[in-house]
Amino acid sequence: MSFLLxxxxxxxxxxxLQRRGGPRPKSGNGFRRFWSWTALIVGGLYFFLPLIGTxxxxxxxxxxxYSLDAYRSVLEDxxxxxxxxxxxxxxxxxxxxxxxIVVPTAYWVRLRLPRWRPVIEFxxxxxxxxxxxxxxxxxxxxxxxSSFLPMTGTTMGTNILLMFGYVMLALPYTYRAVxxxxxxxxxxSLTEAAQSLGASWVxxxxxxxxxxxxxxxxxxxxxxxxxxxxxxxxxSLLNRPAFGPYMQILGANRAYEPAALAVIAFAITxxxxxxxxxxxxxxxxxxxxx
Amino acid sequence: MSFLExxxxxxxxxxxxxxxxxxxxxxxxxxxxxxxxxxxGKTTVLRMVAGFEAPTSGRISVDGKDITRLRANQRNVGxxxxxxxxxxxxxxxxxxxFGLKVAGVPKSERNPRIADMLALIGxxxxxxxYPWQLSGGQQQRVALARALAPxxxxxxxxxxxxxxxxxxxxxxRNQIREIQQQLGITTIFVTHDQExxxxxxDRIVVMHxxxxxxxxxxQDIYNRPSTExxxxxxGTLNRLTADVLDPETGHIRIGGSEITLGQPLPxxxxxxxxxxxxxxxxxTGIAAQVTKVEFLGALISVAxxxxxxxxxxxxxxxxxxxxxxxxxRIHLQIAPSRLLIKQAA
Amino acid sequence: MSQKFGWNWLGVVPFLAxxxxxxxxxTMNIVIGAFRTPGGGFTLANVQGxxxxxxxxxxxxxxxxxxxxxxxxxxxxxxIAAAMVHGGLPKWLRGPITTFSGVASNFAGVxxxxxxxxxxGRVGLVTMLLRDWFxxxxxxxxxxxxSFWGLTLTYLFFQIPLMVLIITPALDGxxxxxxxxxxxxxxxxxxYWRMVALPVLFPSLLGxxxxxxxxxxxxxxxxxxxxxxxxxxxxxxxxxxxxxDVLQDPHLGYAMAFGMIxxxxxxNLVYIIxxxxxxxxxx
Lengths: 290, 345, 283
Ligand SMILES: Nc1ncnc2c1ncn2[C@@H]1O[C@H](COP(=O)(O)OP(=O)(O)O)[C@@H](O)[C@H]1O
Ligand SMILES: [Mg+2]
What we know:
The complex is a heterotrimer.
Chain A: H1 2-20, H2 29-58, H3 69-76, H4 78-111, H5 117-129, H6 132-142, H7 155-183, H8 187-196, H9 201-212, H10 214-229, H11 233-237, H12 243-253, H13 257-289
Helix pairs in contact in A: 1-2, 2-13, 3-13, 4-7, 4-10, 4-12, 5-7, 7-10, 8-9, 10-13
Chain B: E1 4-13, E2 16-26, E3 31-35, H1 42-50, E4 57-62, E5 65-66, E6 77-80, H2 92-102, H3 107-120, H4 136-148, E7 154-158, H5 166-183, E8 186-191, H6 194-200, E9 203-208, E10 211-216, H7 218-223, H8 228-233, E11 238-246, E12 251-254, E13 257-260, E14 268-274, E15 279-282, E16 286-295, E17 299-306, E18 309-316, E19 329-334, E20 339-343
Parallel strand pairs in B: 3-8, 3-9, 6-7, 7-8
Antiparallel strand pairs in B: 1-2, 1-4, 4-5, 9-10, 11-12, 11-14, 12-13, 14-20, 15-19, 16-17, 16-19, 17-18
Chain C: H1 2-5, H2 13-33, H3 45-49, H4 53-86, H5 94-106, H6 110-120, H7 125-134, H8 148-172, H9 176-184, H10 189-217, H11 221-227, H12 234-244, H13 250-278
Helix pairs in contact in C: 2-13, 4-8, 4-10, 5-8, 6-11, 8-10, 9-10, 10-13, 12-13
The complex binds adenosine-5'-diphosphate and magnesium ion.
């Protein structure tokens, strides 16, 4: 913060010097820059204070001194390990199934059904409009034990249902990521070239299209991971032992552990987004190098 | 006194000096072109005049008033960009009326002015269209009308024709010149196309690495280039080396042939620079072999080799005169008055 | 259709089956359920039940919180994005701001509630600092994290970065020449924004607002972890209803879910209508 402030002050004083002597600076630039830094600093305060506050709070468990007790308590809790493990597996399954559904569809729409694109895109955006709680409510009613597809009747069935729910939640992001990735390559010529060499569809998608949109697929994957890992509503209403409901229960019963959990969750999100921007940068560099 | 004066203008970005000691006086109503290769600083000069870049040092004045520190929105200049830069959310009429609207001109005065401007650029019926519904040439004409509508004291154009195809380019450049003369508006026109600059300018500033190499009327730039760079950049230039056999009479040898120029020359080796139109066919002279002939209508463009040195020249199409055939051997005479002669190293 | 496309449509059958089974049929099931009696007949009674004072007030509170957090999120996010793109800030700041926005916009749900409790709760860092250093006791002044403003403030943590992420490309799309053309025509900075930049951005702004609105209208985890069931916003009431049928009448749950779809759907409908009107100048 102090670094930002001092930079700001330096810029302001520089500006004043320029006004007095020297040539005129570009119109209104100093004024604009002042407000820019103001917006940034206010925003920075709003976003960093909760993070600092949480970190500080998570270290307060032992009276009178800072300690890692809250983290120890969380990490040693077998339910933490179980629920996090469950959510990680769900996230990975979501990513795999999401890729299997989204990549061939986006590819096929670009290759053969360009007129369907608005429709498909509209469907992929629906999860942003229909609240997740409504959808999961529908799941409970539609897939109950007396229905045509009694998925909620068995544990495995419910797990699979939850996983499809997660694929649906992540759909707007994964589809857009993959579709943007596809837009950077010439789907049609690549496909025709491969077909003229006698490649099968599986080969074309698996060996040709997927590697070319690898960066986009990975972006979608990390985003899905970040969404799934702490998801609460669906897991809770389907009664699955996921990380989100665990955090909520812990929050209702403990004081310092939730803060430690929040720090851990933030670190996981940060790792996902960091990997995402890394992948984006690498593939962009790779493409620019070609 | 000149209308627009640029005095000792300098501009540096970081450590690179992009414009160096630039001086230019423009008379009222004059059409000036800034001509030079890409990256030589033309746009930077124009942007300093417009008020988008502050000069590192130097002075810009209009009508005797120093405007160096005035903001762009207080300079009352019109500007046309290479990319048209029409506001996409406004109709053609609203675009043209933009300058008047921000100046607070009431609608009742605005509308006739907009109609006048649209008539001036020859698009009287397109006022309700949006920019995307127009061709590139139409968009650029609207941009011109928009720049002119608030009656600016000068007009700045930054490569306004570069994004257009060849045919539109020629007709629009003529239209720009006509409108400029009709309004008598002082104009600076930036281009990297020498033919364009030649065709429409009162005077041309040839720029090279941030420096104004020569400021002169088109024919002077072409016929009497003041530097090697100007000579090479403007028009085609044939370069020949010759051995001077008799400095008094100007008797020289080029390749295997000898000719007499009839004017004193320095002794030793010289470089001759000649425009395409300095050559003519003759019965005797410099022997050459024709490699390519292009029939252009009024002119015939011929490429030939004098030993290993390529030359290109033009002949008037005299109707019944024989046209040289590719592969044939010819003889060339050079008009001494059209030659630039330099002692070779 | 099959003559025109041959058998090509077969390629999207898996996707359509997935969307039908896990998105559209469940939603339809709820919508239909909202108009059904327990016996299976048609009724409007469930929907009429929404107009009871308790449910109405929860809808109003939800809409208020969503509108406030979406509006503030749009304004502040826009300011930050504009500062980043056009404000003359150093270029290197862009990467970190974008990455951080990605993180923060995904840092929703339960942990976000914990973070705000640790910061602005009764013993949170900022609460304590304000009390000990400046003598300001925000709780004595009427602030409460488990309230309209508390929840709005918390939601802004993911709303603002979402706005930044969405609006930055739109701001990048504003050409430098537009600004310069406006300036050289005599326009002030404000006139340029009012007459050119904002109208050009309007569809994006509107779309983002609708998205942010739906985003917080459907959010449960944060509010639930923050307030338990003390703040009766619609998703929390629906959550409780699904868990334990607290409303006595199970079909009222359908009606509430239907009401939620109506609200987010209406927000998006308004967006689509306004957008088509704003985009007459577009292709
Ligand atoms: N804002 C800027 N910052 C740094 N360098 C610049 C900037 N604008 C132009 N330049 C540099 O100044 C030189 C001249 O640019 P410009 O005036 O645009 O040339 P021209 O219009 O003749 O092509 C170029 O080398 C260009 O890279
Ligand atoms: Mg230029």
